[in-house]
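Re: that chain you flagged

S.,

Sorry for the slow reply, it's been a week of failed gels. I finally had a moment to sit down with the sequence you sent. For the record, here it is as I used it:
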Amino acid sequence: MAANEKGAVLILVIAIIVLSGILIFSSIMFVRETLDFALVKENQLKAINAAQCGIYKAVEDFKRLGVYNSASDAPIWGNEYYTIGGGSGFFQVNTNSMKFISDFKTIDNIGLNNINGASSISITNVTISWAPNNSGEHLTKVSIGGTSWIGSVNSGVQVPLNYTLASSSSANMRIQWDTAVNAKTITALFTFSDGSTVLFDMLANGKTTGNSFIIKSTGKVVSNITWKRTLTAQYDAGSGKITAWNETNSHL
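Prediction finished late last night. Pasting the structure tokens below so you have them in one place:
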């Protein structure tokens, strides 16, 4: 075999070795990335399932006891945990007994309950919004228990109202306007001392909206990376059912 032929064969062999190495390396990386992706999906699924466990635990406790307590990194199995809590997660609003007074300018008998059996929760601000509305309509008074804010603001303006609900306690809320509100849709956004917030419908086109609260739960899976998924669920105490589920990136 001529020298130039030997050189060509050598180049061909080297090229085959290089290509084989590239193919083997690519196959290994593909398998590794596939396994990593499968692990990510598995841990994310475990984390969302853990969050659901926290929701169901809170519901079961409430059904049995009328309250439920915060939990931090409660173990489920192996490296899976859930956390439930936050001031907004223990705040129940009951509009079933709500009534209009003062020429439909005031709604009274809004029941506020702290369903934490161990700790108090503190409201710091309330934002009342209504629709339809115009600039000539004003919120003039908000009272919770024996604490009141008095002024004159338009729809959607936050007002300071500091009130603490002791564990397992209740308070009456009254809201007053300078106009009739019996045909309006009214919402109230409550802010708590821990920075959490919760929005409730007080009226929907003049009709009461029920008796519910929001449960927040973060599921966690601990491995070389900590995976978290967080759910909020609206629980209707009247029907005894979860009426809405949502996922949030704001973890406990």
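What I noticed first: The two ends are 75 Å apart (CA to CA).

Talk soon,
D.
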